[in-house]
Amino acid sequence: MRNFEKYVKDMSKCTNCGICSTIVLCPSPQKCIGCKACFLACPNEAIKPIVDDEPRDVIKIIVDGQEFEVPNYITVKRALELIGFRYSRYPEKGSFFSPCETGGCYACAMLIDGELKPSCHTPVKEGMIINTSTNSIPPLRIVEGFQPHPVGGVGTPYWLKRKGYYIEVACFSAGCNLRCPTCQNFHVTYNSALKPLTPSEAARILSWYRRQYGVDRMAISGGEPTLNRRWLIEFFRELKRRNPDKKARLHLDTNTTLLTPDYIDELIEAGVTDIGADLKALKLETFQLITGITDKTLAKKYLDTAWRAVKYIVDNYYPDKVFLGIGIPYNSAFYPTLDEIYEIGRRIATMDPNIQVVALDYRPEFRRMDIKRPSVEEMLRVKNVLEEAGLQTVIVQTYMGHIGPS
Ligand code: FES
After folding, report:
1. Pocket of ligand 1 contains residue 190 by CB under 6 Å
2. pLDDT of residue 163
3. Is 255:224 a contact under the CB 8 Å cutoff?
């Protein structure tokens, strides 16, 4: 018999924060289907997997017109894997892409009993009809937090910031392919409870916010916006269609781990004008520490893609067609010395020393409440090191606010 997992709560660690019952929409409260969305989202690591060896029925499902028998109380994704389909967390030919596994990004969505639903987060049921091809229907994604912003992000030119003024409107997409223990936005990242939006709905709302707040910049951040490629491209196309004026700026904030050259070309063609690229590290071990990606092969693919993406943008689009800002996280828990920060600075400076680089002071968040937020002095040392490496436009984020180029 096959082994299945279910997730249980360790009450000695649970603080009743409510994340697993409000942010995460449990798809099968009566019996765990092992989707692990609550396990990944719990800030207290109070949820753990155990073997589920209870006997379970076999049910019939229809996939792309063919009937299969699968065990009950599992996700559609697991059922498809048992049938022989493949899933991956980096886009691969012949695999379904399932980067977040928490029901937010809808990259793994399929037509399930006539509705587009994430296969990683939907339970199988007797007689279910699954159509794996979704190209003919509008994509969906959970997007939330539409709001004006006084600071913007890594990809916002620092000289635009004026105290007391909004400079950008933004929205935030649920789902991320990384598992950063210091996730600064985990309420969005792990959200599976909200109604998903089409690209057109999200673009309409963001455009409304633009007019309401009289700004020219419109941004999407996350979570990680790039997980659902079709959704994102259609979102930017629609945003551009609704904002055809020359002043409109379309800003993507990304961890850059999925931005292959063809994806970048498609984004620029869709109207993206500003990219904020978070580069988490230079060394694989540091990248794994910061992102929580334990699979070395996957982590390497993400890290290599991110650095190649930045180089590709610089070589092909920066600065005339696209404004590029690069974010680097800093906390001594991840960088015991500043040597790697210096090497990161060197590598960026060799591409173009004028690129805006923002060092972000990683504060205690999510699963790393034990770390200390870096002091202003520490962040100024990071700034000096990046400038010594040859960078001309370094900004550091501190708890006192941003400190700009010298
Ligand atoms: S991988 Fe299933 S929703 Fe993101």
Report:
1. no
2. 76
3. yes
- Which CATH number applies to 143-403: 2.170.150.20, 2.170.190.11, 3.40.50.300, 3.20.20.70? 3.20.20.70
Q: Decide the pairing of beta strands 128-131 and 58-63.
A: parallel
The upper half-sphere exposure of residue 264, i.e. CA atoms within 13 Å in the direction of its Cβ, equals 27
Q: Is there a common fold for 58-131 and 143-403?
A: no
Nearest to 276 by CA among 397, 357, 371: 357
**What is the DSSP track for 357-372?**
EEEEEPPSBTTBTTSP
> Is the beta carbon of 34 within 6 A of some atom in ligand 1?
no
Closest CA to 275 of 220, 351, 216: 220
CATH number of 58-131: 3.10.20.30
Question: Which residue out of 95, 120, 177, 224 has the highest number of ligand 1 atoms within 8 Å of its CB and is therefore the one to mutate?
Answer: 120
Q: Which helix (H) or strand (E) holds 171?
A: strand 168-173
Tell me, in angstroms, the distance from the centre of ligand 1 to residue 121's CA. 7
| Residues in a beta bridge with 315 | none
Distance 230 CA to ligand 1 centre (A): 14
CA of 278 to the centre of ligand 1 (A): 21
Q: Is 222 in the pocket of ligand 1 (CB under 6 A)?
A: no
Which residue's CA is the closest to the ligand 1 atom numbered 1? 98
Domain segments of the chain: what residues? 4-52, 58-131, 143-403
What single-letter amino acid sits at 343?
E
Ligand 1 centre and the CA of 92: distance in Å? 15
Mind listing the pLDDT tens digit for each residue in 199-237?
999 999 999 999 999 999 999 999 999 999 999 999 999
Q: What angle do CA 379, 380, 386 make, to 5 degrees?
A: 90
pLDDT at 151: 86
Residues 293-314 have pLDDT tens digits of 999 999 999 999 999 999 999 9
Identify the residue whose C-alpha is closest to ligand 1 atom 3. 103
Which of 303, 306, 221 has the alpha carbon at shortest distance from 261? 306
The full DSSP string for 14-47 is -----IIIIIS--S-TTS-----HHHHH-TT--E
- From the CB of 108, is ligand 1 less than 6 Å away? yes
